[in-house]
Amino acid sequence: MDVELRHLRYFVAVAEELSFTRAAERLHIAQPPLSTQIRKLERELGVELFDRSRRAVALTAAGDVLLVEARRLLEQVDQSLRAAVRAGTGEVGRLAIGFVPSASNALLPSQLRAFHGRYPGVELTLREMAPDDLVAAVLAGGIDVCFLYLPFADERLRTRTVLREPLVAALPAEHRLAGGRRKTVALEQLRDEPFVLPARHHMPGLNAGIVAACRSAGFEPEVVQRDVWLLQTVLGLVAAGLGVALVPASVQNLNRAGVVFRPLRDAHAPIEMGAFWRAGDGSAALANFVAMLPTDTSDGAASEPG
Known about the structure:
The structure is a single chain. Helix content is 38%, strand content 23%. By secondary structure, the chain is an alpha/beta fold. It folds into three domains: 5-88, Arc Repressor Mutant, subunit A (Orthogonal Bundle); 92-164 and 271-291, D-Maltodextrin-Binding Protein, domain 2, CATH 3.40.190; 167-263, Periplasmic binding protein-like II (D-Maltodextrin-Binding Protein, domain 2). Strands 4-3-5-12-6 form a five-stranded mixed β-sheet. The chain has a three-stranded antiparallel β-sheet with strand order 10-7-11.
């Protein structure tokens, strides 16, 4: 049957108004074309939809049935169109987010809270992974965006620095520099200390930032454990008295028993975290997420997403 959605919309308007004149006004069309289209619909269906034998327009039995079904069909069409628009604008969909564990200490909670508040129809999938695995997953399409420590660059990925924070010293509670009224330590004071150092992986990342800070103080860190990539584990080894560590300031939020944190007295380059996503990814949900990423990171902490 050559029936178009507009024919059904015209029919519903006449059926609800029970007047061709009022229906034409409601549809903002002239009455003669409306009557012509209703006649065409009736010819296609092979039944009369309206009883025109009386002064007032009335629905026939076929018209009563079609009104119920036409309303249902038009509502389904409208819902489908609205869903398509919402998907096209990123209001619904799916977004896979990967991150190194320490991203959850400062940046990630506020970012996810703000994004979910604005786009509750987007389903978020979170994956905590090692840096090398994160990059591989983003390039393979299994993850849409990931958070990991800089420096790292790949021409296949777009990046934005989303967090800058200072390093702080993590000391065993019984350490000579942890007690008394001391509030800060100089990095040079840790020259002869054994260090628990995060793993380097295939990218410089946090490991490179810590080593660079030590070199700027005039020494190479004496590493007693270098295969640890979870900062929670780094703190566990510090608490056990195996050595000291330099960690991003946000790690203090973990409040690990047996560990005392001390800010560094001398200024060093901050540790930076970046967001990475595939170049040319046309996902509207991803575009909305990226648009909400922090842009002002100059104060050593991520700004609250807008």
